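Anyone? Bumping this.
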Amino acid sequence: NAGVTQTPKFRVLKTGQSMTLLCAQDMNHEYMYWYRQDPGMGLRLIHYSVGEGTTAKGEVPDGYNVSRLKKQNFLLGLESAAPSQTSVYFCASSYSGEQYFGPGTRLTVT
Amino acid sequence: EDQVTQSPEALRLQEGESSSLNCSYTVSGLRGLFWYRQDPGKGPEFLFTLYSAGEEKEKERLKATLTKKESFLHITAPKPEDSATYLCAVQAIGANSKLTFGKGITLSVRP
């Protein structure tokens, strides 16, 4: 089992560009999450999904959109990137309790 | 609003010097408390889940304990490879499996 995988690992964007981060899990988990991690701020929930076809806002959703068209995939989109979105992004999945995390995507917006 | 506070922010130990990391929490109704380990440049790795006050879990040199207001991660005779950031998170009853994380404790163990 690969667990949770994320694509890409690194990305540099210019202000105003768009991109999509892909998360995939092979554990048949219902729940999936997107977090961002910034120094001194800890992990903050952006959006989450409780099942295929569902999405919900987390703590810091502004500037991001998500889609869960297939149970195993959870996509995070940035429509118009801003320097404030420079961060490390983690995807996670769970059955009901503990969450399992991917390796992260380091995004820099210049 | 659920809150998790971890202390200290950073801890430096000599190899073999035992210590404890603290996680204080406030939550409307606790479903579970989780400990994770995160190495630099990697995603958090799940360590333990604790569900009720008085519960303890152990793994190698780590032991996690839980009270109604806080959890401790005890590290016995640490080794340099235990150096990492340790994250604590709580899950409230009815939270759709969402976790609220603390900011983490960075542990450095010197040989």
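Late reply, but here is one note on the structure posted above: The mean pLDDT of chain A is 96.
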